[in-house]
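Q: Could you write out the predicted structure for this multi-component system? I'm mainly interested in how the pieces pack against one another.
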Amino acid sequence: MRTFQKVGPLRAFVRGIRAEGRSVGFVPTMGALHEGHISLFRRAKSDCDLVVVSIFVNPKQFGPNEDLDRYPTDIQRDLQIASNESVGALFQPDVDEIYPAGFQTVVDVPALSTPLEGAHRPGHFQGVATVVTKLLNIVRADRVYFGQKDYQQLLIVERLVRDLNIATEVVSVPTARDEDGLALSSRNVYLSPTERSSATILFRAIRAAEDYVESGGCNSADLHAKLTELISQEPGASIEYVALVDPEELSPVDSLEGRLTLLALAVRIGKTRLIDNTLLAPPGVPKARHRNSRG
Amino acid sequence: MRTFQKVGPLRAFVRGIRAEGRSVGFVPTMGALHEGHISLFRRAKSDCDLVVVSIFVNPKQFGPNEDLDRYPTDIQRDLQIASNESVGALFQPDVDEIYPAGFQTVVDVPALSTPLEGAHRPGHFQGVATVVTKLLNIVRADRVYFGQKDYQQLLIVERLVRDLNIATEVVSVPTARDEDGLALSSRNVYLSPTERSSATILFRAIRAAEDYVESGGCNSADLHAKLTELISQEPGASIEYVALVDPEELSPVDSLEGRLTLLALAVRIGKTRLIDNTLLAPPGVPKARHRNSRG
């Protein structure tokens, strides 16, 4: 595995690979790698000749009261994992390499960045959109891989890739989960054993919503009330939002009948903020989005 | 000359040229081509194997009370000029090809977009930065050419190319002028013969500023007052701004001593808004900026 700290040598390396007619898959990460990242690496490896992984804890996507200072890092472990997974190139820039003195440009995807996470984390998606645009321009991969766990992020990246004509295909990969259903996240390490138990409430809510829809329920307000009650009963759990929205526009839906609906959850377990989501498809509606995701 | 209306075929054509090891120079325009554009085409042709020109009147860079509806167009004449100038490919998309339904992403270069033109044309530079980012990603040229007449635009494009790691070199080309010094602009066609005479006041003010500095003057407030008085005496001329600013940050300067200063002017002649600028260099200071302009 080749490692790079600087933009220039990484770009030259990838250019050489592509000039040989080999395809390049890119997985941007913030490190603290887990099985969710590994599933992205494996999907990239199955699609592409070379896998490039970036590890960059992007300060611009953390709010002033968020966990930038204590975000988990273990670079030696990350390097070992990436190397074991046949990652061909690892890009690990420092903050000055990505945001040198005088840096000021912002990429914003305003409508998709407003609801859900955007409402609770002001500036978060401007930080995501800006760094993703940079990383896509640096790597110039054939395909880039994002997890469905960060659904709104995925939608925003798809949108900016199309809007800014970035010639990289966005591939989404299903959420990796622990055996009890908890969505894998680098932030799960913050949870105490008791909190770790409570944290399954997000997946239990997802299952309850799927059962509701599969058994013919389609009243959005009714389902919202049931999920709110279920989560509120969990000790230590505090709801930030429970949202039933259109899976492309993220606008609220009144009825789930005959359409695909995104259920998105943000719940604090103690001090740890967790998110999860699923697509709810009534009987007869395909549980998949249709889209063109290359710019 | 090949002509393209769609992103896909243009991109494939340019990719083929570059795969043959030939270099590509790109000149984005809004059409209504004049000698200023031609000087960009010729500079691009002298540097690169293939010249790509785009003609797109970008609605996002016009304010609601600006001249989008009457902006001059003469596509047959433009095609003839481009063809005569050895332009290899002309990209002439319609608005829906650049901004399809659902488009929402904005590229903003906030600090450089705030003063001067930005203060008088809200949203203008977000429109410029967004469309330039798109066009650079579509064409993927080796070099892109901008005129120094739109100095603030040039600075913003240089900044976004560096900030977003766009692998195209930004080349700036000196302002083309009529024999009497009027900077060439597509908007000069709006001027009546009387206004055309008055319009030389911008160049006369530039000359007066250069004389002031060459003869040892370095008081910014004093020079500003002299230029304001000079322009105000011109019949039909009304000042939007006369600015003496740092040529990189666009922040006001108190003294011109020992440094390069940008003089930027925006003046209405009747209803027509004209801009011009020059770099003022006291004796002994080189009249040139130093910068790295590739992302």
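A: Regarding packing and overall arrangement: The interface with chain B takes residues 7, 11, 102-112, 129, 133-134, 137-138, 140, 159-160, 162-167, 295 of chain A (CB under 8 Å).
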